[in-house]
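Notes to self after the Tuesday call (sharing in case useful).
The group wants a holo model before anyone commits to mutagenesis around the pocket. I volunteered. Ligand is FE2/S2 (inorganic) cluster. Logging inputs and output together so the record is complete.
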Amino acid sequence: MKPPVFEYVSPATLDDAIAALSAPDAGDVKVLAGGQSFVPLLSLRLAQPSLVVDINRIDELASITEEAGVLTIGSLVRQRQAEHSDVVKKACPLMAEALPFIGHTAIRNRGTIGGSIAHADPAAELPTVAACLDAELVARGPGGERTIPAAEFFTGFFTTALAEDEILTAVRVRSAGPGTGAAYEEVARRHGDFAMVGVGAQVRLDGDVVAEARIALSGVDIAPVRASRAEAALAGRTVDDSILEEAAQAAVADLSPSSDLHGSAAYRKHVAGVLIRKTVATAAARARENR
Amino acid sequence: MSTREITVTVNGRKRTVHVEVRRTLADFLREDLGLTATHLGCEHGVCGACTVVVDGQTERSCTQLAVQADGREITTVEGLAAADGTLHPVQQALRDNHSFQCGFCTPGFVMSIYGMCEEKKAGRPVPCSREEIREELSGNICRCTGYQSIVDGAEAALAGADGGDS
Ligand SMILES: Cc1cc2nc3c(=O)[nH]c(=O)nc-3n(C[C@H](O)[C@H](O)[C@H](O)COP(=O)(O)OP(=O)(O)OC[C@H]3O[C@@H](n4cnc5c(N)ncnc54)[C@H](O)[C@@H]3O)c2cc1C
Ligand code: FES
Ligand code: FES
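Result:
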């Protein structure tokens, strides 16, 4: 349980970090952010990099800004910092709802927003939030900056569209306007454990009618899943028990989770349906209050 | 073997030391500084035994590297009691409530509860009900007590942490 030998750099700028990542003789290089997933991987020797590029001193990655209806969260913003940010609570209530489910205070004090998204655990909260909101993931590499839509970012089990020499620099989402409400719920063995199934929902109402519903699930596939058929079933309708049931059934029909020692596939599907009804109902009620 | 010189303040004392870059903060505290009260249970972030306070907030010392602590201020459980041995109010509250048996988990619980008390004093929202305290402490594992007495101790410590002296 001790990390293997590696070389280490802690550049102060993004350009220097990218130069270190893309150096021709770099070998197996890894980015170190909050370290809450990566240092355990080192200690377990599941990761044995030749060079670790610590991005914790790059201040330009650590800010939260809202401009022209777009919220930009730097990848190095700590999970706990975002959780307590008034800007995040207002512009991205779904993320604010989801953050307390991540691990424990001591984990979130150090774990970063970008680290969780780059790690892409299919049970994790932040990738689910990114998928739900069609977030844009901003990446920088030796060739410059590019923006990757969430739908193309999470490509599988712990894998993303990021290249080896790219750094995730920020997450961008459209700010939630008036008439919008959000809710996040999950079932885990214990608070702070990875979710068996998690659901994030955001609803925008026009009068009493759903103008837009967004639903995403964690823990049911190799990457976060959007419940597109449930979203379509809700659009243009008034939220009541029968439409909630219809939406939950539509979503569950599309799921094929695997069974493992934490829960069977049938149980996961059942939980997914229950959580969809619950989160959509809560999100709609909050949207009504927020008119 | 790659090493770095770092300067850290541990329990109020500033030190400049050479560390191997792969050294975790936990091993640095225990092996290099001899501060063995910070315990190591799982060494991958799960059990909470290695919790310390870094720049005013609780963090795991097993999931960060010692080099990353360069320039930062660390408090371990050795840094809480007064110089004459008088226990810190959090330690006293846990002692009064028999919050430990074998004591392996205790340093981690003390630091987590100390962190909650400091946040309360700083006016941030902290868990107050027993249920909330349980949730908040779910990141610390105890194999002995069954947690009842630890929740009792945390409740007493939090009740005493109202911006007074600590
Ligand atoms: C006890 C415990 C419980 C936890 N429970 C949960 C939970 O319930 N839900 C949850 O979602 N997470 C949980 N986590 C994980 C936690 O959220 C991590 O913080 C997160 O997964 C990784 O973020 P990090 O900043 O710590 O990244 P690191 O651990 O530093 O990095 C993780 C991976 O992402 C890469 N990476 C990081 N940042 C970037 C970047 N900017 N650009 C490119 N690549 C990058 C790294 O190279 C590495 O491969 C838990 C962790 C622990 C120890
Ligand atoms: S030893 Fe650090 S959390 Fe278990
Ligand atoms: S008192 Fe023995 S592990 Fe907690």
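Two things stood out.
Chain A has three domains: 7-54, 59-174, 181-186+193-289.
Chain A has a mean pLDDT of 96.
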